[in-house]
Amino acid sequence: MSADPATVPTQGAAPAPAPASFPPTRAPAERRGSVDVLAAMAKPLPFPPLDLMHDRTRTVSHAMAQSKRADEQRRRDKGKAKAEEPLDEAGISEGRRWKAGLRPGQAAKKLFPKPNLARRAYRRFFIKRDLKYGREWRPEELEEAARRGNFPHRPSDLFLKMYSDVLTCLTRDPLAGNVSPALIGTQGTIPLSIVSTIPDIMQHYQDCIVLAEKEVFLVTNYWQPSDSVKTVASGLKELNKRVGERKGEKVVVKIMWDRGAVQQLWHNHVSVSPQMWTPLGLPNPDEVPNLSLQVVNFHRPLLGTFHQKAMVVDRKIALLNSNNIQDRPNLEMMVHLEGPVVDSIYDNILISWHESLSPALPCLTGPTPTTHPDLFPFTFTDSNPYLANIDVAKAARAARKLLNRQDDQARKGEQTESLNPPEWWRRTSTSGPNPWPFGTFMHGHGHAHGHPHGLPRQESATDGAEGGKFAALVMQLIEKAREEKARLALGMSGIMNPGQDGQAAAVGSPAVMGSGAAASTAIEAPRESLLGDGIEAASIGSSDDSHTRVNGTSGKTLTGAETEKPDLGIKTQDHATAHNGAAVEPNPPGSNHPQEPSPTAAAASQEPPADVGKDLASTLPVSRNGDSNKGTVSSARLAALSKALNAGALAKIDAAIDDETLIHDFKPHLLHKAHEPFPIALVNRRPHGSPGHNDIRCPQAAAWLAALKYAERDVFIQTPTLNAAPIVRGVIEACSRGGKDGKGVPVTLFLGLGFNDKGESIPFQGGTNEEVVFRLFGQLRKLGKEDNLHVYWYTGKDQIRPLNAVHKSRNCHIKFMSVDGQCAIVGNGNLDSQSFWHSQEANILIDNPQIVADWMDQLRANQSTHKYGRVDTDGIWRDPSTGEELEKPKSISCFSAMRAVI
User: Fold this and answer.
1) What is the pLDDT of residue 750?
2) Which of 415, 567, 596, 747 is deepest in the core (most CB within 10 A)?
3) Which of 530, 662, 647 is nearest to 196 (CA)?
4) Given CA atoms 485, 490, 492, 498 in this order, what sign does their dihedral have?
5) Where is this region: Disordered (predicted)?
């Protein structure tokens, strides 16, 4: 990392120096612009003080670390007077000391007291005005914003504009973002993203839990007895077993949820006893003697729901996801984060915990990714231990093993053609386009800020050859294993002739595999995953001496076949009209590149070494839902995909698509190529229990509204519900007056048909998705801008028409926003009134066009929304073949809506 984070000073030492600024700090005499002008006009400054944003020791997590040290000192001194340690940080009086047993809520209140009522009321007006109507940020102000973050390089202007809006909220309340201000602007990497059903995400939770060495910190909204709970409980039991075998110290496990309790009327955080959590699926303390569990139930009445979903393990990795720990037929999204951003999420969860830590978290006083980055190297694909159980990572290890064996044989003279790939995985370059999009995952965005140093990646001489061979070998290993499983599922083992076998084992088409339907099995059980796993060629095309490790700023990127690919997502404004001037709709996410051709049969003159793919094949499930009458491997894959998407469904349904090849690009796990840390900002909101629509001055609302205000090319949103009045107004403004030319930008909405209609029908909630869509098109039609709005109802990967969420068969619960292909917001928050005004949420704003493009491609691949979900400009979906409209659900009365919520 190019920015040296502040280190913890010793007692009595001077405060740590501020991190280097981007760009370098100018002399005060040279600093001119709107910041000084505003001060002269007696208006509030738009940003918090620089020292507040720079002092890494002025955080709740640091205060808790000091308190823990005081407690350890008290234990050493056996209760003597020397039981306290002074607070080593700037901005706090020298006489203040942190006592042992400090609660995170106490630390937050002492570190960041709210300004007095008059000052808050004064700033309240300016902040709301800027967020609601927008503000033209000057270059000088953007540079000031860039200095108020621990970024590895200067972020893009779009990111800085959004981040500037976020910072204005901190001038009224430093904890408006529910994280210490010094940690809100940070950096990190994302080695893995999952877009799949809940079992796949919970399986990754389990994989990370069992690797814990000191602590697990897990928070969720719903905790409902289910297979998802069984998966977490199984991971905790396995962790307990491993701790016992290594005879290590107890692992501390903290869990927080929102289940509602009468006691929360007078105390929002209620401790949960083992007698209460055992019936909910958590193991009894007697079952896990090597773990120390503590559970808290948090809700802020009346409406302040704790809606956050995240997990931090050993302060090394953080998982941020859209799903609760329950079983639902939802398509969900999870991102795996590493680097200093983990410290930010850790601090955020500590503030939310609020109560005493009993026992204290071991990692409070240990090294962190911010203070000791050298101890937390960035790893990717099969080099990352937390990703070891993902099929593609296993295949990468197997492929590397095979290639190393061939190299050894070549050196010993035992093989004369070791540099040539065996026929069973060779691809011919003369057969047309690459049948598997390994070489097409790189995207030419042309953004100077895509690389930490503003320079394009230099291609290695071996990228096209060795990287391509390695990627092809990985996929062939996966295909051979999956093909065998599908054949066994259909009872066709040993029946197919070589030609059929080769055709069924098409190199480019990853197979469908049942999702985590058996997610509650033991950790050693065969791993179940969805159809196929996405992986970047650059992230696996490497040898052992140059693979996925990146240390700080001098890490090596991986080699691989990198073919330029057009920008994913919505077409830019300058391409939004046809040659005749007529408006044309932008392509849905990920569909701006040519259709990937169906792979041809691979030659099978040589079979792969049996011992190389054996371990991988043993981890792949056998589908039992295949239709033996069809007698094809694709049929088994299609049946397995439907089984996976039926996870948690009350009404299980079969696949409706006829073309089985449409499922071949499904990739629940996307292993991103190796990359340097990039700018990230936490854009959260705290819970607001009081009724009303007044709490707009929070980073989450600021980031969402800024995305719609500052977009110059396009905006893409996927959310289960969208009805918050400021968001609806922002969509209309973006479609009608957005962009540099003020003529509007395309806005694409992927929404859930009928999702939570009962709750959204309550007065003042904003209405159902259908009602909002009608209003949006009605308003834009009056302005002549209805062609800039593109609405789609979510359609499952195996379906050909949207299904109303009331059937609970195919729903989507993803919360995602992309802006201009440069920035994206992903996390917990829906774009509805409840999440916008009341619930506690956690989201990240990232500045990395490659990761954004990867996400857009993954979202497109894992659903059929862009193919079958398009809504006409009158707000009605019609079958493209028959013109038939969807059956209208029964109307919902206000009384039934209120009853459903209660």
Assistant:
1) 98
2) 747
3) 530
4) negative
5) 1-34, 60-95, 404-464, 537-567, 580-631
Q: Strand pairing of 564-565 and 442-443? A: parallel
Task: Please state, as a whole number, how many other Cβ atoms lie within 10 Å of the Cβ of residue 692.
Answer: 10
Copy the structure tokens of residue 680.
């990230």
- Could you give the CA distance from residue 641 to residue 330 in angstroms, rounded to a whole number? 14
Report the SS3 class of residue 256: strand
CB proximity list for 269: less than 8 A, separation 6 or greater: 296, 297, 298, 353, 354, 355
**Strand intervals (E) in 432-556:** 442-443, 533-535
Number of H helices, E strands in the chain: 25, 22
437: number of Cβ within 10 Å:
20
Closest CA to 216 of 183, 239, 194: 239
Contacting residues for 217 by C-beta, under 8 A, at least 6 apart: 254, 311, 312, 313, 346, 349, 361
Q: Distances from the Cα of 49 to the Cαs of 35, 147, 148, 172, 345, in angstroms?
A: 12, 11, 9, 12, 22
Query: CA 66 to CA 781: how far, in whole Å?
Result: 60
Q: How many CB atoms lie within 10 A of CB 682?
A: 26
Helices (H), 5-155: 34-40, 50-54, 60-77, 104-111, 117-133, 139-147
Comparing CA positions, the residue from 815, 807, 859 lying closest to residue 834 is 815
d(CA 303, CA 834): 8
Pairing of β 310-313 and β 317-321: antiparallel
Structural domains of the chain, with CATH:
28-181 (no CATH), 186-376 (3.30.870.10), 385-451+460-648 (no CATH), 703-901 (3.30.870.10)
Beta-bridge partner residues of 793: 751
CA distance 21 to 15: 17
CA atoms within 13 A on the CB side of 511: 35
- Residue 688 has a CB neighbour count (10 Å cut-off) of 18
Q: Is the whole model's pTM more than 0.90, yes or no?
A: no
Beta 669-671 vs 317-321: how paired, if at all?
unpaired
Give the Cα separation of 490 and 509 in Å (integer). 18
Half-sphere exposure of 14 (CA within 13 A, CB side): 2
Helix (H, G, I), strand (E, B) or coil at 325: strand
Q: Please, which residues bridge with residue 715 across strands?
A: 747, 819
What type of residue is 669?
Answer: H
Q: Give which of 104, 93, 100 is closest to 69, Cα–Cα.
A: 100
pLDDT along the chain (902 residues), means of 10: 42 45 44 50 78 94 94 79 46 58 95 84 81 86 97 98 95 95 98 96 98 98 96 98 97 97 95 97 98 98 96 98 96 98 98 96 94 92 92 76 76 56 42 34 36 36 50 68 56 43 37 36 38 45 38 38 38 41 50 38 38 42 40 68 78 75 80 97 96 91 96 98 96 96 97 82 82 97 97 95 90 98 98 95 98 97 95 94 78 52 48
CA distance linking residue 108 with residue 92, whole number of Å: 13
Rounded Cα distance, 251 and 730, in Å: 46
Tokens 């100077």 map to which residue? Answer: 448
- Beta-carbon contacts of 895 under 8 Å, excluding residues fewer than 6 positions away, are none
At 276 the three-state DSSP class reads helix
Q: What is the pLDDT of residue 184?
A: 98
Which among 665, 412, 436 has a CA at the least distance from the CA of 537? 436
Question: What span, in angstroms and rounded, lies between the C-alpha atoms of 310 and 828?
Answer: 9
Paired strand residues for 218 = 255, 311
CB count, 10 Å around CB of 426? 17
Rounded to the nearest angstrom, the gap between the alpha carbon of residue 74 and the centroid of all alpha carbons in its chain is 41
Distance from C-alpha of 244 to C-alpha of 845, rounded to nearest angstrom: 40
**Pair 544, 404: CB distance under 8 Å:** yes
* Residue 157 DSSP SS3: helix
Within 8 A by CB and 6+ apart from 648, the residues are: 197, 198, 226, 227, 326, 327, 328, 329, 330
